[in-house]
Design a protein that fits this description.
By secondary structure, the chain is α/β, with parallel strands linked by helices. It has one domain (3-259): Beta Polymerase, domain 2, CATH 3.30.460.10. Helices cover 54% and strands 19% of the residues. The chain has 8 helices and 6 strands. A 6-stranded mixed beta sheet has the order 1-2-3-6-5-4. The longest helix is centred in the first third of the chain and has 36 residues, at 31-66. It starts with a strand and ends with a helix. 23% of the residues are buried. The structure holds guanosine-5'-triphosphate and magnesium ion (MG). Magnesium ion (MG) is lined by residues 106, 173. Residues 106, 139, 146, 148, 150, 154, 175, 185, 188-189 line the site of guanosine-5'-triphosphate.
Length: 260
Amino acid sequence: MILERGSAVNTSEIRQRLETLDSQHLANLSAGEMVEFVDLMQVYEGAMREISTKLEVLDTEFQVQFSHNPIHHMERRLKTANSLIGKLERKELPITVESVKDHIFDVAGIRVICNYRDDVYSVSRYLSDQSDIQVLRVKDYIRNPKQNGYRSLHIIYAVPVFLTSGPHYTPVEVQFRTIAMDYWASLEHQLRYKSDLPDARLAEHSQTLLDCARSLQNVEVQMQSIHRDISGSPQEQESDDEMLEHLRSLGEEQRGKGNS
Ligand code: GTP
Ligand code: MG
């Protein structure tokens, strides 16, 4: 199941939105560049669909081979013009189509929410091994969770989109995570944008969230182990103890900081 976050590319709508954006920098975009931008968004949309289809095919094959669907669901979205401009401004880059092409790798984004951690690693490995796409960058926040407890596997792929002018290798950011990691990340994201909380409450909630990340991981390890025992789907060799130890040490580091 793919959940569309925002609508697919609607070129006249993008054009309209671009024209009504109130960023001062947008005044620098020529009519030609706006057309180029709209065309570019269509290519990203194509790339996103290519990767989604590959993932759906893998999920179906798993169902046939192992009687197990590794993917619980997927979400996908294209960055809006507003958020693209915001990101270019934050990175102090010129607001041009070239900047987007050269520096922004998450214009097209897919979130793959898997049932178990084994699924995260098998699906990402089978996708990464496909000969027509390239892996541009991997950030494994599952093996190396962030300080706040965030876990997910981020991979940026370059996928060829075949246009009349030939293949255009286009980046797509894929975030692989389990249902539990997604559940956690949604609340943490909400907390991060809750700016009206007093600092002390924010710090307390952040600490609790870190504890929750650890508890969720514990639950996942146990459920994964039952699932491994009763299903024949591919398994990951990574030691659970190592990952738990890593999260535990993050907790101690944070507590240490709180006390100092
Ligand atoms: P930006 O895209 O500029 O953020 O830099 P990056 O691509 O180097 O970042 P990274 O790959 O680390 O993270 C990209 C995306 O992952 C973000 O846009 C979020 O969707 C998600 N993400 C990263 N860190 C966190 C986090 O701590 N909490 C939550 N909830 N999501 C995160
Ligand atoms: Mg990003």
